[in-house]
């Protein structure tokens, strides 16, 4: 009771602090040091702004996603982690209004911050309400809706957090304003899509196979559906119809056309004649062809040409690895095991290469390439840095999925070298009988609970006496 009360008071304190933060009016943005034609001043980023950046990365980028997973598995650490993240987010919010040094023009990062804080206020408020366990009268009727809303908002927050991080990065450098806005949108949306696809494949690889089986669809059905939809959008948005064809318009549009054509084929091939799900290679081929197109994408700077070439090769490698995985590693099966608990080490390559290619495309805008070229940074150093970031994100996603899987499966998967191997079967029992899955045993015990008398209970004293 005391622990529950402490959690409730902590959550209420976080909600109160968030409410006070929401009432703070936006500070005056000084722009007297910004030169004409630019969108940031040449001043360095001061220590206050660096602290703001680091605190927000810790709060929004680490604690909140971790707290989301802890909430899904109903961990007692959910409230403390989310409360700590909320307090740090408030501190970082105020520091963002108190910095000196570099000045910024009005930007999306500053405009989106109040919306993000409002989402956090709603999420914390719903969490406090649920912690109070008000279940009588009208509260009993609305509680189930609050539970659903709390869950959905929590799962959508990583997307809004990612968006705000992107806004923060381009704002800090003064990018993506004026004529550069269009190509920035293309790079960040497409690069973010590759990373999101990698995250989804990681989820499906490690914890999503049972869900996929319940849908009655193959992974390629969903992949092809998204590819077809995205291709339709790209076909009609990459060129301003009625105007002249300029620069890479034709290549972008043709890439959109091949996406929706291949996507439709992938949807058709994702089922057998009897209606059962079937694997196919179409999404892998589309990824490979997209990489081929991007590797030969003409650019104005030599550095940009090299970065786009390596990005294309990385994407081609992802598509080729996907084809090898389905054809030779899995042999058209969904996973190496029934529940997908033990994926083949080769299967980790595809999502990681998508992470890396996504970061490379996000980091290859015209302004970024010009800045690196002027600074004398080589493409090798830049690519290694982007791969390092991809490794870190891939590690973090794997850690979160591990936390979820260990609780959801309720099974200790550690290998015990001392376990006897009866009849030569690892982790086996005599006569070749496999060890009973703990989930199955728990389900059976739950179903039999209350139906067994004391004499029937194998652990009861009477039963033990009878056995003796």
UniProtKB/TrEMBL annotation:
TM regions (residue ranges): 50-70, 77-95, 115-132, 152-173, 185-208, 281-298, 310-330, 346-364, 384-405
InterPro entries for this protein: DUF2427, YTP1_C
Superkingdom field: Eukaryota
Pfam families registered for this protein in UniProt: DUF2427, Ytp1
Amino acid composition bias (Acidic residues), ranges on this chain: 444-459
Annotated organism of origin: Lophiostoma macrostomum CBS 122681
DUF2427 domain: residues covered: 33-133
Keywords tagged on the record: Membrane, Signal, Transmembrane, Transmembrane helix
Ranges of biased composition (kind: Basic and acidic residues): 434-443
The UniProt record lists the keyword Signal: yes
CDD domains referenced in this protein's UniProt entry, alphabetically: Cyt_b561_FRRS1_like
Stretch forming the signal peptide: 1-26
Domain Protein YTP1-like C-terminal: 161-404
Annotated region (Disordered), positions in chain: 420-468
Name the UniProt record assigns to this protein: Integral membrane protein-like protein
């Amino acid at each position: 009771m005391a622990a529950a009360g402490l959690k409730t008071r902590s959550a209420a304190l976080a909600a109160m602090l968030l409410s006070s933060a929401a009432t703070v009016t936006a500070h005056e943005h000084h722009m007297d040091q910004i030169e004409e034609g630019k969108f940031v001043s040449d001043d360095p980023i001061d220590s206050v702004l660096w602290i703001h950046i680091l605190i927000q990365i810790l709060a929004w980028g680490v604690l909140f996603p971790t707290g989301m997973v802890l909430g899904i598995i109903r961990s007692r650490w959910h409230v403390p982690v989310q409360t700590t993240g909320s307090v740090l987010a408030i501190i970082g919010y105020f520091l963002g209004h108190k910095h000196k040094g570099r000045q910024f023009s009005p930007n999306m990062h500053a405009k989106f911050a109040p919306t993000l804080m409002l989402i956090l206020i709603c999420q914390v408020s719903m969490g406090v309400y649920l912690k109070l366990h008000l279940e009588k009268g009208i509260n009993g009727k609305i509680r189930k809706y609050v539970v659903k809303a709390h869950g959905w908002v929590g799962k959508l927050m990583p997307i809004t957090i990612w968006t705000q991080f992107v806004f923060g990065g381009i704002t800090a450098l003064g990018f993506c304003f004026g004529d550069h806005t269009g190509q920035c949108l293309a790079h960040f949306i497409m690069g973010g899509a590759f990373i999101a696809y990698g995250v989804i494949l990681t989820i499906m690889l490690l914890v999503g196979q049972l869900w996929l089986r319940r849908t009655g669809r193959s992974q390629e059905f969903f992949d092809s559906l998204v590819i077809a939809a995205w291709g339709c959008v790209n076909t009609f948005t990459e060129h301003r119809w009625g105007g002249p064809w300029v620069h890479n318009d034709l290549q972008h549009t043709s890439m959109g056309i091949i996406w929706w054509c291949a996507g439709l084929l992938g949807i058709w091939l994702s089922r057998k004649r009897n209606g059962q799900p079937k694997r196919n290679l179409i999404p892998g081929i589309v990824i490979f062809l997209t990489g081929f197109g991007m590797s030969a994408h003409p650019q104005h700077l030599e550095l940009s040409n090299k970065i786009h070439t390596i990005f294309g090769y990385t994407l081609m490698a992802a598509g080729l690895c996907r084809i090898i995985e389905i054809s030779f590693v899995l042999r058209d099966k969904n996973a190496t095991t029934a529940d997908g608990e033990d994926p083949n080490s080769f299967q980790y390559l595809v999502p990681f290469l998508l992470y890396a290619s996504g970061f490379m495309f996000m980091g290859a805008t015209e302004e970024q390439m010009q800045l690196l070229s002027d600074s004398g940074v080589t493409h090798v150093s830049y690519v290694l840095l982007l791969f390092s970031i991809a490794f870190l994100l891939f590690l973090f996603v794997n850690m979160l999925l591990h936390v979820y899987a260990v609780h959801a499966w309720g099974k200790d998967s550690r290998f015990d070298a001392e376990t006897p191997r009866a009849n030569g079967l690892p982790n086996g029992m005599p006569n070749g009988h496999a060890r009973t899955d703990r989930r199955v045993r728990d389900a059976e015990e739950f179903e039999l609970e209350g139906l067994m008398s004391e004499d029937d209970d194998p652990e009861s004293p009477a039963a033990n006496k009878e056995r003796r």
